[in-house]
Fold each of these.
Amino acid sequence: MKCRVCQAKAMIKIERHHTAFCPICFTDYVHKQVERAVADERMFTRSEEILLAVSGGKDSLALWEILIKLGYKTAGLHVDLGIGDYSRASRAKAERFADSRGARLIVHDLPNELGAGIPQIAEKTDRPPCSACGLVKRYSFNQIALEKGFSVVATGHNLDDEAARLLGNVLHWQEEYLDKQSPVLPAAHEKLVKKVKPLYRLAEREIAAYSIMNRIEYIVEECPNATGAKLLVYKDVLNRLEENAPGTKHNFYLTFLRRRSAGSAEFTEGFPTCQRCGQPTQAGGAARRKAANDSGESALAGATASAPAAHPSSSQENGGARSPLCGYCRLMERVHA
Ligand code: SF4
Ligand SMILES: [Zn+2]
Ligand SMILES: [Zn+2]
């Protein structure tokens, strides 16, 4: 098997593109896919400084490496979740990467900042750990970006993550989540920063291969709370489909993006804001759909507005009585009660 570009010995085959690359040309292919994602979705420019959410796993560290090599201005943000050995090892990987590249890393230590890590927050609020973790991470990324003056937050979600998430959302017709599933969530409110996913065109195995070829040291162990996560089941199903029909994940997710009309960022305007922190108090799915229905649009053609402060499973966000506090501030009230 030869590299499609230079005819040297290929090290990785990419079935969905009927092609294969040597390590040098593969690295070039990965960089081009990210450049294309950034350009197609107008994620950011070289004059902006990007805050990159860095877990210590392969995706976020590979993205950091790629953006540095492509000449973008970046700083990393690691949220220490306080999940025992897993968090200690993850933080060490993020710190070592930043040191070795001379890059700036901001660490937000939940046990120090909030007096509780994810296990304690989950216990005190009776929420599944991943639900509490997702809410706290989204809020922290946004809040720290605002405080430190970043206009965009990048995360390392890849094609497998997005296709699995789409499958879950479609299986359960989670219209509110479908509304928000996009490689770019605009800054739809003065207290929200833009969120982008520059790896959405790259499969997980490609990012793993890139990390190995580029000697990136990442945490291999999964978070102990990941066991049995639905997303992993959806990934497994999609991997089996992909084996039979290469390109399934790519077609599923990228066709979804193409077929959906471009979203509007304006729907959070006029939304109530949290009395404590000033962020929007609801994800806006119900309100956006109402606005879309009022204007004759379908729910799927709706907005891609982001509202990281909210948690869509709570009754307030799903049409019940509105709370004067956002999801995060309600969570923190219970943690510190
Ligand atoms: S598996 Fe759950 S608890 Fe662990 S890092 Fe992911 S979202 Fe957080
Ligand atoms: Zn080559
Ligand atoms: Zn709030």
Amino acid sequence: MPTAPGTFKAPWAPKRTKQDRERSNDKERRKRHPWRGWYKLAAWKKIRARRLASDPLCVMCLAEGKTTAATVVDHIEPHRGNRDLFFSYANTQSLCEAHHNRDKQRIEANGETQSPSPRPKPEPNFHF
Ligand SMILES: [Zn+2]
């Protein structure tokens, strides 16, 4: 005897999942910052591997007399989406995570970002 199928949902029916939304967010980000995808390219991976092989230590730590393994390959001159700067081996340096993050903050503090937006200051006389 046949059983009622009930509410059958085709597994191939289009369904908007969280993953889909994240994917479209990625697409948006790629449109605004196409260079983000360059980090996945073989050309960059080659530059990165070569830089870490030749300078396995963080150059900024070395300048401070410390020896720290480099984990990040940084662009010395911010590439700002400039392909030549991005894929220039000479424009890269080995950094540790801490120095890389510090460097980024310095750049933001100097207003060297593409769209400097002043952060809203807290109310001067705001107390709990
Ligand atoms: Zn360092």
